[in-house]
Write a structure and sequence with these properties.
heterodimer; A: mainly alpha; ABC transporter involved in vitamin B12 uptake, BtuC; 14 helices; globular; disordered N terminus; B: alpha/beta; Rossmann fold; six-stranded mixed β-sheet; four-stranded antiparallel β-sheet; 12 strands
Chain lengths: 343, 267
């Protein structure tokens, strides 16, 4: 068994490394690996950075590195919370976007942003917190709307998700249009473009990401047991209700972290866990860490595409993930009955 | 010993179990029989803590089960559910390994001793060769044996089996019940509390002739009430059964004279 566990993790790590490199090097101004190596070497040796490297240095460390970090955090948070929602609802179509949680988180973020579009640390920390409240409220609303007795039918979940999704979306658009801030930036946010630069958003998201994903990484066994249904899970000794609330809480925390500064980015939470399930099977103890690595790699690649498709203009990354995600989603929908890894 | 006293359970306003009392001694096999809707599955769900009793008590060796945590209870009672809608993406080995859940930490890390136990249970239920196959590829009989193995590694002093033979061919029914008897006669080691108990089994069965063959005692439930409780010779009597099932039944002796045989009378 051991050889099989090590293998996919290394592949995912390699993919992530490649995506990180691409994200650092490719953009409206592309750098070569040699340039990057020289800048890093100059920084490490602590010496003066030569005039010829100043531009490369600024691009790498002031622009690309924080953006790469934010995108990687966002992608991993979306993919892991997607995998967790799918396991929690035992539904292959659950994803923070489809069940409306992401829009709820977005609405929370926009409410705070419209109050104070501020750049100080307190203002920035309030954004993920508001997203988190929005995410938890939405998931509670969707689940209670979709619930029939003790069961949670797929159709109901999706319908309630879509309804709440469009409601929250409309409120968000309304607030954004009313805001006195830059409209273009707001719209880019809605479409999932990382509109804010610098290290502050990264630092503001990091604590939520660490707590949310840190706890989710330990939930693999519990999620495995929950795949057998609430009744069997309890008979196997898992406190089902408590576990469910923990997973909802931390998944919403992770979603909030992802959404608060990069905007609405759909389908990452759907594509990545499903591809991984096809590759490695349904064991959540593997699926969760692999989703973390794969989600980061996938969103980084999408972000690279978003930067180069229309250079010098940038596309919001949400457009890329939706363009690749929608066909994939429809394919899953058609196949979901016959998928070998899902009953 | 599992002791159930005056157990009453409701679904909403409707009582589905009324004043049910019985005892299940260590090493005993108790068959629960009765027509559909009599409350047999409800009894399994109440004993395993899914449905809270409205009144009455469920005790094991004097400990009130309702006061225990989910995890502690899962160390005393294991359930073999009917094999349906199992998650298709797990391997057979993973399914059995989840039986160790009540003894594991939050991460679910298995010790070498746990793994040894899992292999032993799979050997004894003849599922060893399936270990790396996916659940989605297995037959009903194979799945039912896996669930028995999962309950075995839970290493509890009480095992509840909810219609384990439904949907199985005759040879698999006999095979499964033989394996159940073997678990009771020769328990698996691995209960965290170190006390070696001879486990007891409560099994819900439809086939009355299998009941006669396998059960030490029989509980006849009708409409949520205990209609009869005793040895198979005491309970499998034509008048009791005909009344309970609403059709004329006759009870004969098996050719070797050892077991009662229940046969419906043709009009």
């Amino acid at each position: 068994m051991k050889g099989r566990t090590v293998h996919p993790i290394w592949i995912a790590l390699a993919a992530l490394l490649a995506a990180l490199l691409l994200s650092m090097l490719v953009g409206s101004v592309s750098l070569s690996l040699v340039d990057m190596a020289r800048v890093v070497a100059a920084r490490l040796s602590g010496g003066e950075i030569g005039a010829d490297l100043r531009v490369a240095d600024t691009i790498l460390f002031s622009l690309r590195l924080p953006r790469t970090a934010l995108v990687a955090l966002t992608g991993s948070a979306l993919a892991v919370s997607g995998a967790a929602y799918q396991g929690l609802f035992r539904n292959p179509l659950a994803d923070p976007y489809l069940i409306g949680v992401a829009s709820g988180a977005g609405l929370g973020a926009v409410i705070v942003l419209s109050l104070r579009w501020g750049y100080d640390v307190a203002g920035l920390l309030a954004v993920p917190l508001a997203s988190f409240s929005g995410a938890v409220l939405t998931v509670l609303m969707v689940v209670s709307l979709a619930r029939v007795g003790r069961s949670l039918p797929v159709t109901n979940l999706l319908l309630a998700g879509v309804a709440v999704n469009s409601f929250a979306g409309a409120l968000t658009s309304f607030l954004l249009l009313r805001s006195t801030g830059e409209l273009r930036r707001a719209i880019a946010w809605l479409m999932g473009g990382s509109s804010m630069g610098g290290w502050q958003p990264v630092l503001a998201v990091l604590p939520y990401w660490l707590i949310g994903l840190g706890i989710l990484m330990t939930m693999g066994h519990a999620l495995n047991v929950m795949q057998f249904g609430d009744e069997q899970a309890q008979q196997l000794g898992l406190p089902v209700e408590t576990t469910r609330w923990i997973i909802i809480g931390v998944s919403s925390l992770a979603t909030a972290a992802a959404v608060s500064f990069t905007g609405i980015i759909g389908f990452v939470g759907l594509i990545v866990p499903h591809l991984l399930r096809l590759l490695v099977g349904g064991d959540y103890r593997r699926l969760l860490p692999l989703s973390l690595l794969g989600g980061a790699a996938f969103l980084l690649l999408a972000d690279v595409l978003a930067r180069i498709v229309m250079t010098p203009q940038e596309l919001p990354v949400g457009i890329i993930t939706a363009l690749t995600g929608t066909p994939f989603f429809l394919w899953i929908l058609r196949r979901s009955r016959s998928l070998p890894y899902w009953s | 010993m599992l002791e159930v006293l005056h157990l009453t359970v409701r679904y909403g306003a409707k009582p589905v179990l009324k004043d049910v009392s019985f005892r299940l001694a260590d090493g005993e096999i108790l068959a629960v029989i009765g027509p559909n809707g009599a409350g047999k599955s409800t009894l399994v769900r109440a004993l395993s803590g899914i449905l809270p009793p409205e009144c009455g008590s469920i005790r094991y060796d004097g400990r009130d089960l309702c006061a225990l945590s989910v995890q502690e209870r899962a160390r005393l009672i294991a359930v073999v559910p009917q094999a349906r809608s199992l998650p298709a993406g797990f391997t057979a080995w993973q399914v059995v390994s989840l039986g160790r859940t009540p003894y594991l930490n939050w991460l679910g890390q298995l010790s070498p001793a746990d793994e040894e136990l899992i292999w032993e249970a799979m050997r004894r239920t003849d599922t060893q060769h399936l270990a790396h196959r996916l659940v989605g590829e297995l037959s009903g009989g194979e799945l039912q044996r896996l669930l028995l193995a999962r309950a075995m590694v839970q290493a509890t002093p009480v095992m509840l089996l909810d219609e384990p033979t439904t949907h199985l061919d005759l040879q698999y029914q006999i095979g499964l019940l033989n394996q159940m008897v073997e678990v009771v006669r020769q328990p698996i080691a691995g209960n965290g509390n170190g006390k070696a108990h001879q486990p007891a089994a409560l099994v819900v069965l439809h086939d009355l002739n299998l009941v006669a063959r396998y059960a030490d005692r029989v509980l006849l439930l009708v409409d949520g009430c205990v209609q009869a409780y005793g040895t198979s010779v005491e309970v499998l009597r034509p008048q009791l059964l005909s009344e309970a099932f609403g059709i004329p039944l006759e009870v004969m002796r098996s050719p070797n004279g050892k077991y009662p045989l229940v046969v419906p009378l043709m009009a």
